[in-house]
Fold each of these.
Amino acid sequence: MPPSSFPTRQLYYDGKLWPASSGKTFESIDPSNATPLAEIQVAAHADIDAAIAAADRAFSSWSQTPPIARARILQKAVALLRERNDEIARVETLDSGKAFTETSTVDVVTGADTLEYYANLVGGGGLNGETTQLREDAWVYTKKAPLGVCAAIGAWNYPIQIALWKSAPCLAAGNTLVYKPSEFTPLHAQTLAEIYREAGLPAGVFNVVYGAGDVGAYLTAHPTIAKVSFTGQVTTGMKVAGSAAGNMKYVTMELGGKSPLIILPDAELDNAVDGAMMANFYSTGQVCTNGTRVFVPASMKAAFEQRLLEKMQYIRPGPLFDDATNFGPLSSAIHAEKVASYIRHGIETDKATLLFGGLGKPSVPKELEAGFWVRPTVFTNCTDDMKIVKEEIFGPVMSILSYETVEEAVERANTTELGLAAGVFTKNLNLAHRIIDQLQAGITWINTWGESPADMAVGGWKNSGVGVENGRRGIEAWVKNKSTLVDTNGAIATVFAKL
């Protein structure tokens, strides 16, 4: 069993720990039982300035380090992450409230995969430019250059994974980074900084500051910052993107979603139910890509709901380090109240039919009753105008919507300002591809849900974001392009010649 508390977290920059000058702290809380885990020191403006200055000093050398040398350092960090997978995952479980069966098999693993992917990419020439012969005596060549000092704002649902999704391409491309984790799940940041240092990352290349939105706002608006990468809710992301764009900074925004999952009439029932459950209840529903609007053919609705009810019994809340537990609490008290308010609204105002769950907490051992638990909840007979159908809840709340024709389902699926993810379950793959082409979302799945391997570029459409993370395209968000035309003709074409 892991320890119940951790040393005070200080800031990390210029390759070592520093006490914050603000004199302020906040607590990291174990969501499963509402007990404190650690005191976290809040960065003052002067501390953020110091962290950015350290990153700025380190940029000149790191950006000039050959890509293959950068790759070797990052590959050492990958090995350390994998070696310490369970140790890191235990801290992630305590900090985030996710079951250890999840954090030990997904969070650190997928983060390390992404770091390895980008280390291999740049080490194998992935930052090489292109050469084009314009004519016999003229060539164009391109080069990719790092952006400079970058800022990354992490999210609380996948703490170390998102930290690696951002730092991996950033550092591989030759940038330096100042990272602010979410104030709700901050414990991973120092661990990652120490792993990077042990792997040989030079001082100042990766830095950590702590705090809430005001710290993030000062960091991202700082004139030295060249690029901002943010993961979080849509309203905050719009503010961050607006501030960054107004100062000509590069941005990547991975924001929220209200994603449709369309089940076609020929879909295998068990697969459809399993997919819908994974798209709603994995990570206690705290996944931005979750398929919370489940479109079911009217002819299939009764059978789908019956099988769903049978399988809901397999959701097992409980002690987070128990191998049988597959459902944890929500991340914080404030978020638990938010999700509960949506469930209450669905029952009392939207008047949706409560098929399973509802208000209150699931049955958990007495020592966990103070935790931020909610019941996995399913609403049916939903309509498109209901608040629980229109707004992102970010919790374990499924809305079932019936439809008559596929064309109707696609049209309704697209009636949202968000466009993060979408998916289709069917045996007819030709039809699936045609439907996917019509769905207005940046991340789509056919007969599966949720997997985002390092090789797969992911990003939202509409209000769900700007740019992509991961995949070959992901590195492009961390570099700028330079094109050069070389003319070897020996003469200059000119209109300013004697007639």
Amino acid sequence: MEKWHLDYLQRILNARVYDVAIESPLELAEKLSARLGNRIWLKREDKQPVHSFKLRGAYNKMVHLSQAELDRGVVCASAGNHAQGVALSARQLGTQAVVVMPVTTPRLKLDAVRTLGAQVVLKGDSYSDAYSHALELEKRHQYVFVHPFDDPDVIAGQGTVGMEILRQHQHPLDAVFVAIGGGGLIAGVAAYIKAVRPEIKIIGVQTADSDAMIQSIKADEPVLLKDVGLFSDGTAVKKVGTETFRLTRELVDDFVTVDTDAICAAIKDAFEETRSILEPAGALGIAGMKQYIAQHGLEDKNLVAITCGANMNFDRLRFVAEQAEAGEGREALFAVTIPEERGSFKRLCQTIGQRNVTEFSYRISDEREAHVLVGLAISNRGEVPEINQSLSEQGFTALNLVDDDLSKEHLRYMVGGRSQLGENERLYRFEFPECPGALMRFLSRMHPNWNISLFHYRNSGADYGRILVGIEVPEEEVPAFRDFIDSLSYRYVDETRNPAYRLFLR
């Protein structure tokens, strides 16, 4: 074993976390095991006092500070879970904690941090903004900065999760699935498990739109993402740590990315198994494990998924419930074109047969053809080609929208909104931060020649809003418009050529 690896093993073995943390249970997930054909174990870090593993690293860092450093107080930046860990640790150690959080932070997390006695400072729309301000406060007031992931003591504290897994499961174990944000948890878990039982695979899980670690491994150096998806806010990190990157590159065996639908399905899986509601980041391990099993055809293996957090906003549950069906492959969404004539609608219903209809949207818009949005309950995605074939045999043209985010997030709520007035209309999906002034920032920078021709927003209870905007832009001004939307730093997708948009809204 190399010296640096031995050093981390010693740090983890000597980590002080149990003044504030519990040894979380490792539970057999019987329903998931039966469904997936493998023995699935859940490492329940969601049961920690602050409902996240983060207090392990925060406390281990802070308990190693000198009394003089504790007297100066500590500062950190966090979107929620690390903040609660620092606040609880500060209360335990009798020091002042200043926590900088984005203004988009949900009240649930703000109240939790304040209840633990920390001073909360709201700054910026993102973690990056909060992080920069925390560094300013560190210099101005001589606070000690407690990094959320890129610190050896923090990494060692998180590594006690791996230590507990091996102590609790002394039988053969094939793989452990770990969510990755900045990399502190996977670095610590991998450091311990690979030192003690190197035959066990460590699989990292990231969201497809926040995969900074995976991109860094490919580039062989930490890379800075231009933007990140915000649904899994606990792992929405634009740049991983230098030390966490080094450990992950050396010790982690493989990676898998998952989308929002898969995460929502995993939250539902966890609820049905444990009656606990995980936050998106907390369910990443389960989502990644399910996808990895399917991709590699795993059978009869012993697998662990770390459920690393449960600080879920209640308002977000509606969105999760809606997306979970798609994530489980239990809903098929189609745009079906039928003749605008008597009997066509009845014939479509006969073709659908006894399948349960989850959605049916239609509005007359053309003398010859009708476009109908149809949602159907299915057992698995293998049924989708069969349905397509049945519709085709009856002379109906069907467009499969199962993987079309525009349709799932917006169109299904807007069918019937066709207009002939929108000239040179361009369609974009945006993610706006849920904070005062976000929309005004967008509108105030728009050129007066650009007219909003369509707007759809639906609150999903998240830290950001999913917004669909149609804008009339003269062809000669398209380059200027692209420069404008790039300058906003909001995530966006150009949907102008999306066939579903042209069927239902154009």
